[in-house]
Amino acid sequence: MTGIIVATEQELSALLETIKDAQKTQIFDLSFYRGKINSTEIVLTKCGIGKVHSARTTQIMIDKFNVDKIINIGAAGAVNKELKIADIVIADKLVQYDFDISSLDDKEVGDIPGVGRFIKADENLVSLCKDTLKGINNCNVKIGTIASADYFCSDKEKAEQIRNDFGAECVEMEGAAIAQVCMLDNIPFLIIRGISDTPNDNNKIDYYTYCNIAAKQAVEFLYKFLG
After folding, report:
1. In what helix (H) or strand (E) does residue 119 lie, and over which residues does it extend?
2. 3-class DSSP assignment, residue 225
3. Are 32 and 65 in contact (CB under 8 A)?
4. Mean pLDDT value of segment 157-171
5. Is 40 left (phi over 0), alpha (psi -120 to 50) or beta?
6. For residues 146 and 124, is the Cβ–Cβ distance under 8 A?
7. What is the Cα–Cα distance from 47 to 205, expressed in whole angstroms?
8. Which residues are catalytically annotated?
9. Is-contact 53 148, C-beta < 8 A?
10. Could you tell me the pTM of the whole model?
11. What is the overall mean pLDDT for the chain?
């Protein structure tokens, strides 16, 4: 079974439209929906925004459902200036850019003891994404680094710093935490993001305007991927 985690109600609604006869299970405050996307058995849930919510939800999904992989989809802000609204980023690795113990230990920002600086996505799943892309026209997709933090990045200078320090394509608030739990539990994972905004000191407006478009673009890609 494939586990799918989203952060927001918009992303959840976009995915529920693709699932027939979803069966709902309540665990604590989380609603899990079991069903099929195409012929793939899935369990879907909304974790909420931020790294703690996403890590907690990932562990519950692993503990309570027989998932053999986890996919996280949603919206993100571009830090690569080549990316535009509704483009897609697929992570080959992730980093928590707000994790910093450099003043305590001689480590780079983002380097987590026992984990490392970058967490690599499952190579087979990324390779399958590349195969999926061959059949899609008019879809700009980047495969690269996604950077996560408990921080909505709206500052252009901060965005440039994240791009320069980590080689990131985009920033968001859940992916690297989900990746860390999956890595520690030996569960293959994949993180897919639709671009909703670009940090420009005014991207709060852009986010609320375009997050539904970005989420639907990511869902459409996932639908083809699970075909």
Report:
1. strand 119-120
2. helix
3. yes
4. 96
5. beta
6. no
7. 23
8. 11, 197
9. no
10. 0.93
11. 91
Please answer whether residues 205 and 182 qualify as being in contact, where contact means their C-beta atoms are separated by less than 8 angstroms. Answer: no
Rounded (10°) angle between helices 123-133 and 203-225: 90
- Phi, psi (rounded to 5 degrees) for 199: -55, 115
Tokens of 98: 């707000």
Contact 94/121 with Cβ under 8 angstroms?
yes
The per-residue pLDDT for 136 is 67
- What are the distances in angstroms from CA 37 to CA 3, 169, 199, 209? 11, 28, 33, 27
Angle at 74 between CA 189 and CA 38, to 5 degrees: 70
Q: Which helix (H) or strand (E) holds 73?
A: strand 69-78
* Sign of the torsion formed by the C-alpha atoms of 177, 178, 182 and 188: negative
The Cα 89–Cα 143 span in angstroms is 6
How many residues in total does the chain contain? 227
Report d(CA 92, CA 14) in Å as an integer.
24
CB 190 within 8 A of CB 122: yes
Residue appearing with tokens 């320090």 = 165
- Amino acid 192 reads I
d(CA 19, CA 42): 9
Strand 88-96 versus strand 30-37 pairing type: unpaired
Instruction: Record the tokens describing residue 79, joined without a space.
Output: 């830090």
Question: For residue 145, what are its two tokens?
Answer: 């680094």
* Predicted local distance difference test score (pLDDT) of residue 10: 82
Does pLDDT of 201 surpass 60? no
In the chain, what are the domains?
Answer: 2-225 (3.40.50.1580)
Min mean pLDDT across 44-48, 143-147, 218-222 is at: 218-222
